[in-house]
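Model: Ready when you are.
Researcher: Fold this.
Model:
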Amino acid sequence: MSSNLRLPYLFKRYGHHNVVRLIDPDLLDMTQPFFSASVAERTGHVGMIGFDEWLSVQPEVSDGFANFSAIFHVSRCGSTLLASNIRASGQAMVLSEPPFFRILRHRMWGSISADVAMRACLAMLNAWRGWAQERGAPLVVKFGSQMHLHHRNLLDRMPAARFIFLHREPSAVLESLSRKPPPYLQAGRLKELISLPIITPTESDPVLIAATHRYCAALDSFASLSRENMISVGYEQLSARYAEILAHFGLDPESAPPWCGQRDAKASGGEPKPYVPVSAERLALFSESHNEILAYASWRYQIFLTG
């Protein structure tokens, strides 16, 4: 059922006009694994307001973003599965990779400062946090995998929030990124990474080189980070530490269903589908074909683990 509530969800620029697009959150399909898929055609655009007009009336956040938790992560590390399990607990409103934070990269296509972009995305996030609180639940957001580029600024501005950094050994991550590159590694965005230095002369694949640089940058971002409101968890630890993660996020592990790692968390709606992992043979072939760059990434991962 639709309501009169309209929440901001997307920053856009039309010609010389910066605008904020609005949707009715009660029409979102919350069974979808990602926010973008939950925005059905009928809810994709139900309103629009000028950016400056909207930002000028946004309230200051005075509680340090209490009742908010977020997942930082490297790519392809089980973060969607973690978000799916938290959603299944029924204790939090979970948004997976909402587009609120894209403004930190495009800054309204260069028309606003980095500080204004940060203020805008936090104001948008705060509106959704209020929506969750009205429903008696905290808000949990799974960030996109590139949010490590902004992590310190976000952490400084949200001292009362809770965070996790989810990581994974590099062979499975890089094999997946090489086989199915995400938008930041596809042709339109890859040119942004064209100046990255060559890691090893035996590796010429620009996608794999860029993926490795971003993977290592994410590890570096959190390697020396020690904060009370941040914990670090490896992919292989998800099941064993799931109760700890829930408690860290202020949720009740005793009231949540047990961890489920057997469903395909990225499958859209409908009946749950089983998770089919990449075969050992495929991983072995990938590792053999790219052994030198994987050796480098593994070395960097060990440095991260040993602190």
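Researcher: Now this one.
Model:
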Amino acid sequence: MSLLLAGRSEEAAAILEPLARLPIAPPRVITNLAIARAAFRNGDGARSLLDGDGKSGGIDTVMQALPGGATPGRR
């Protein structure tokens, strides 16, 4: 999250990707990866991580709140 807050969302996602793939990945890692993806406007990628939990609707809100406010559903 520190990288994300420093405006380095793509770097944060690159670090979180392999961790999120681990079978023992905590839900927090997956959520943080979704937020990092949303920060660099990969809404579809963010939603795909959270769809199974029924939480993907929050990604649109996150994307709008981030600097540059992305249009929901746009990559």
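Researcher: Key takeaway?
Model: Residues 2-65 form one domain.
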